[in-house]
Amino acid sequence: MKAIESIPDSQLLLFKSCMVGQEYPGVETSTRYVFDRIGVDYCINDEQSCCTGIGHYTDIFEGLTTIAIAARNFAVARRCGYPNITCLCSTCYAINKEACEVLNTNTEVRERINAIFREQGLENLVYEKDDMNPRTNFYHAVEILLSKVNEIKKQKKFDFSGTKAAAHHACHYYKVKYLDVLGNPENPQLIDTIAAVCGADPVRWYEDRTLTCGMGFSQLHLNKDTSLQVTKTKLDSLQKAGVELMIHMCPNCHIQYDRYQPVIEEEFDVKYDMVHMNIAQFVALSMGADPYKVCGFQTHSVPLEEFLEIHGII
Amino acid sequence: MIQYVNEYDTPECNTLAETAKKSIRTPASLGLDRCIQCGACTASCPAARFTDYSPRQIVKKVLENDRSVLESEMIWSCFYCYSCNLRCPRNNSPVTIVQVLRQIAVNNGIGVEKLVYFLEIGEYLAENGASKVPGAGIKNMERDLGERWIRIKKNLESTRVELGLSSRDVRNTHGEVQAILEATGYFEREKWVKAKIQEKGSHQLLKNKCIKNENKSGDFGFESDREYPGQPAFTI
Fold it and tell me: Domain Cysteine-rich, which positions (chain A) (predicted)?
């Protein structure tokens, strides 16, 4: 288990996420808004590429390519002096952490990748064993937020008292490297704890809390019926629990719930009362951020206007 | 049939179990041999809940070196959610074993048509340094998500600017990603997969799959849990 005291607040490379950039750019700006105000030293580097997660988990990328791309991103992080890779997406987190483990422990793969770098004239990307540590160089942005809840509390402007909120912790954060989670991977509470600091009333347990979002990489596209059935199961459970706000930490889950909630409502003839946002958007909002100029709620499929009006934000 | 060689994901071994253990897709500490067929994986599995998919059965087939598992549609139902990876009391990881099985299947030309949909992800990544939902996926999303989403996407660049971001998510990879993809053999494999798909004439096949959204799980001659004869009773 990770210790909360071990979470760094400096030299963080805020790892850009393709799905955040293309679907919910407000997640990136909200994270930056909060980091800027709670004393986090971070940078964003445009040289960083996609982690390959989408291609890796749709089976088109082989492991060697994925790990080589990761090694390149590690070189980018080290070169700019921000070696603590901090992800907005849980799949980037898992892919990078696993790639680092293989690079450190599998000499054959490491040497093959370094040989490729040298052949291509990319000596500056060469990865030496233990250049990065899979346990201490990789974080999810939600871990940084949790380590700074006292700062968040001090700077809170809006109080979300009485907001019934539920967390969806992302599978690739707590089920891939399950020994390296802040808290118990059978019942992660990171989002709940942060939301409670902002005044929300978190539903700490609900039926099917650890069920996946249903996106399943190729599944949403190849087996859409099953994919949406899985998503519906959790939405049904949240509706039963009277939840008004579902809080996410991964753009893939966020797409699945926010974009597909209206689709499920139509296809299954049901109606849901909850809205969706990322935990960084929720924290930014409670610290006084503009819902459209910082949080970017205009890119959401389930409209948030009613929620924002009820809570006196707009 | 000519096989594609993918020495790190699917190292050549005598049995499926050995390949799975040696593959870089599975954890180095994979507890495959320690599997006690308890079914915690299947009990935790979202695909098992809604289809006949069974990670426990798949692990059993792998341990028995039953290569018919490669032909099974079942291996294409996994969500890669890693619930089985978390819950297995013996440190086994059905989810990563299934990743290896899919790779072996593809190397043998089985199920290549499942990849058609996603092939452009690699080319886009090489060119732009980022990934995106492939074109066919965008079409499906446009159909499912309708006007509101199309408007959101049309306004994306101006929204990003309003948020203080660059209008597009720019990645300056200096051609390094392209060079890496070429040198690791990614494009060579992509070419091989495309040729295989053409050989199988699966373009039509894919079209049917994506548009009809048929549920394909469950009709593949796997013994179901109910039919499993079990062990003879031990009597004193």
Answer: 13-94, 166-256
